[in-house]
TrEMBL record:
Its main location: cytoplasm. Residues 377-446 form the Chromosomal replication initiator DnaA C-terminal domain. GO terms for cellular component: cytoplasm; plasma membrane. Residues 350-469 are annotated as: Domain IV, binds dsDNA. Oligomerizes as a right-handed, spiral filament on DNA at oriC. ATP binds at G176, G178, K179, T180. This is Chromosomal replication initiator protein DnaA. SUPFAM superfamilies: P-loop containing nucleoside triphosphate hydrolases, TrpR-like. Plays an essential role in the initiation and regulation of chromosomal replication. ATP-DnaA binds to the origin of replication (oriC) to initiate formation of the DNA replication initiation complex once per cell cycle. Binds the DnaA box (a 9 base pair repeat at the origin) and separates the double-stranded (ds)DNA. Forms a right-handed helical filament on oriC DNA; dsDNA binds to the exterior of the filament while single-stranded (ss)DNA is stabiized in the filament's interior. GO terms for molecular function: ATP binding; DNA replication origin binding; lipid binding. HAMAP family: DnaA_bact (MF_00377). Residues 94-115 are annotated as: Disordered.
């Protein structure tokens, strides 16, 4: 009975979570609702426990979503009278601030990480961040293209020995486009250029947790002194600094103090400073006073280059070029998903002893591929091709066989097969009721021409970029 009740609760939570995702949006849901874990349900009191991993997240959900969660659960099952938000009891307690340590214990952040501390703890300088610098996220491992070269060059300059022309540096990019990679790379390069420097890397959420902890322990003087003692401050996901006006004010004063001493600051977020919600104007002004470097979504050339760079890890395993092209063209939402798709495909091939192929990619990456595919219509393809080749839209369905008309029509048929799930007969009907064999001929012809004719390959690549953007 207990197992069945747990299953019923889980099923109800899945429905409630799905509804909240639609109401709140994917980003808000992923940040605050998805981490919630079901606790116990007391039938006597009608109280249901929901657990979150940190005190900060529990307080946030309690303040903003408790009423909505309570109502949703009461609708789902009438015996739920109240919902209680708590920190997960199995969560490791944060270490106490070690503000009274001796000078010999107060080593630089990079010294502690280099000494092998598994958590990269910064408690000796007044912080308990559990996030260190990932050794794999370096400048050498970052693949550049036209969409991210500005941010890359700015990040490199921020880490050099010479004083940068701008500070703070603000990296703006959507999820999975490389802003966190560049933060870590700056930290690594700065440590090499300044071996005794004091570096602190954290998320905005972690900064707020440390601030609240110091406030409760009446240790704000020590907190400020330690924070302002860093030579390089790296803060990720600054969009989550919302709320807590006192924490924002402390960050503002810290920025001013560090800049006055010539220290370096780098922030990263998924939106521009002016688009941050709940952040006071003075802090927004400081965040945008240096350089705001935008990382645009990776174009298909950069996606290809990223995949090629990752293949060296799997040598001597071979991945056919058509598979690389397929992944680069199809998984276009963010780089993290792209690399994850390649890793999943290769892991599956290695574990099952199969060869990597286009068919295997389509079979094993269904979820990733379906999430990335934008609905491109044949009408949209015809319109784009006609504009590109400067022919009238009616020629897509006409019977004219002049070369100036036939070739664009064949390219459109090829793109319709590549970019849409339509069958050959369905495509033929959209091109003036042509037979499916005509479409097959057009697809094979364009495939062959792309191999032999650089101009044709260039035309198709250009059209693919337009249609997939």
């Amino acid at each position: 009975m207990e197992d069945q009740e747990a299953l019923d609760l889980a099923a109800d939570w899945a429905d409630i979570s799905q509804g909240l995702r639609k109401d709140l949006g994917q980003q808000m849901h992923s940040q605050w609702i998805k981490p919630i874990q079901l606790g116990s349900f007391c039938k006597q009191s009608g109280t249901l426990d929901l657990f979150l991993p940190t005190e900060f997240s529990a307080n946030w959900v309690q303040d903003r979503f408790l009423d909505r969660l309570s109502l949703a659960w009461k609708i789902a099952r009438s015996e739920v009278k109240s919902v209680r938000i708590q920190v997960h009891p199995g969560r490791r307690k944060m270490a106490d601030l070690n503000l009274g340590s001796s000078p010999t214990q107060r080593r630089a952040a990079n010294d502690r990480m280099q000494s092998g501390d598994p958590l990269g703890s910064l408690s000796d300088v007044g912080f308990t961040s559990s996030v260190g610098l990932d050794p794999s996220l370096t400048f050498a491992a970052f693949v550049t293209g036209t969409t991210n070269v500005l941010a890359f060059n700015a990040a490199e300059r921020m880490a050099k020995v010479e004083k940068p022309q701008f500070s703070p540096l603000y990296l703006k990019a959507a999820t999975g486009q490389g802003k966190t990679h560049l933060l870590h790379a700056i930290g690594h390069a700065y440590m090499q250029a300044h071996p005794r420097a004091r570096i602190f890397y954290c998320s905005a959420e972690r900064f707020m947790i440390e601030f609240v902890q110091a406030l409760r322990q009446n240790a704000m003087i020590e907190f400020k002194a330690r924070l302002r003692g860093f030579d390089l401050l790296l803060v990720d996901d600054i969009q989550f600094i919302i709320g807590k006006a006192s924490a924002q004010e402390e960050l503002l004063y810290t920025i001013d103090a560090l800049l006055a001493e010539g220290k370096r600051l780098v922030f990263a977020a998924d939106r521009a400073p002016q688009a941050l919600d709940g952040v006071e104007q003075r802090l927004l002004s400081r965040l945008s006073m240096g350089l705001v470097a935008d990382i645009q979504p990776a174009d298909i050339e950069l996606r290809r280059a990223i995949l090629e760079s990752k293949l060296t890890r799997f040598a001597p395993l071979e991945v056919p070029s058509d598979v690389i092209e397929f992944l680069a063209r199809t998984i276009n939402r963010n780089v993290r998903e792209l690399v994850g798709g390649l890793n999943k495909l290769i892991a599956y091939a290695q574990l099952t002893g199969q060869e990597v192929s286009l068919q295997l990619a389509e079979e094993q990456l269904t979820d990733i591929l379906s999430a990335n595919r934008r609905r491109i219509t044949i009408d949209e393809i015809q319109r784009t091709v006609c504009q590109f080749y400067r022919v009238d839209r009616s020629e897509m369905s006409s019977k004219r066989r002049a070369r100036a008309v036939v070739r664009p029509r064949q390219v459109a048929m090829y793109l319709a097969k590549v970019l849409t799930p339509r069958s050959y007969p369905e495509i033929g009907r959209k091109f003036g009721g042509r037979d499916h064999s005509t479409v097959i001929h057009a697809v094979r012809l364009i495939e062959d021409l792309r191999q032999r004719d650089a101009d044709m390959d260039g035309d198709v690549r250009s059209l693919l970029r337009q249609l997939e953007s």
